[in-house]
Amino acid sequence: MKKGKVIISCALTGSMHTPTMSPFLPVAPEKIAEEGIAAHRAGAAILHLHARDPENGRPTPSAEVFMQFLPQLHAETDAVINISTGGGPGMTLEERLRAAVQVSPELCSLNMGCMNINLSELASRHDFKYDWEKPFLEATEDLVAKNTFRDIRHIIETLGPGGTRFEMECYEIGHLHNIAFFADKGLLKPPFLIQSVLGVTGGMSADADSVYFMRQTADRLFGGDYIWSLFGAGRHQMGVCTMGALMGSSVRVGLEDSLFISRGQLANSNADQVLKIRRILDELGLEVATAEEARQMLGLKGRANINL
């Protein structure tokens, strides 16, 4: 694994938390742009992006909505734009790729396999503002987040020729082997950005053994040809990031992954979480990468070569 500065990614809104869960979850395009600018100024080199319906906060694949905040983020920050190809529940593969195909960003997320994801227990914890929220959460008990080998190949072959590289999200050890499968076919090329995702119900647990096993397996499969990043879902966010950073990883925070800044206290913004992990990294004596340094580490095509 390559050594160097720590890249901070920030996932601003995601597609699984619903607006009632936190008044600070950015929904409107102008709010997503505002949050992204602040997170970048706080130290996030990469902005991981989903879109929301401005009327009700429901996840949307609409390229038109993405284009209501992407140009501002591109114009007012130096951040690496990273568009999700995971989308949200119920979206087709074609829908999930619409914004990424239009923009051809430097990075896109790429889930490296199918996943059961269950947030149904959250459906009983709130009085929801919008009528879609409760059934949306209840339905996750029967949710499979689909990314088959055919889907993964299609995403790579659709976006790769334009120079887009991938944040490869690995919820369990088999997903690392899936990266190796596509690398052996010549479809994925190093340096790989491997994002270990821990603590999601249905995936690997968020504990020290999982962090170590992820790193050990990636080292065995990829040697020095990868940049490792990781995050912990929910209450595990800062602890997992700290464990990973001590072992040489980069980190991801943001309201997509956790709505909280500490036990029982909602984060007021994405920037709050970026500032907190940056303080931790500073105390550990670790240097944070700028956006340009992250581009060099990841072999990205550069911000001048995207369609914004």
UniProtKB/TrEMBL annotation:
Q: Give a Pfam family name.
A: BKACE
Q: Which cofactor does it need?
A: Zn(2+)
Q: Which UniProt keywords apply?
A: Metal-binding, Transferase, Zinc
Give the InterPro entries listed for this entry. Answer: Aldolase_TIM, BKACE
**Know the name of this protein?**
3-keto-5-aminohexanoate cleavage protein
Q: Which organism is it from?
A: Sphingobium fuliginis ATCC 27551
Q: Which GO terms describe its molecular function?
A: 3-keto-5-aminohexanoate cleavage activity; metal ion binding
Source domain of life is: Bacteria
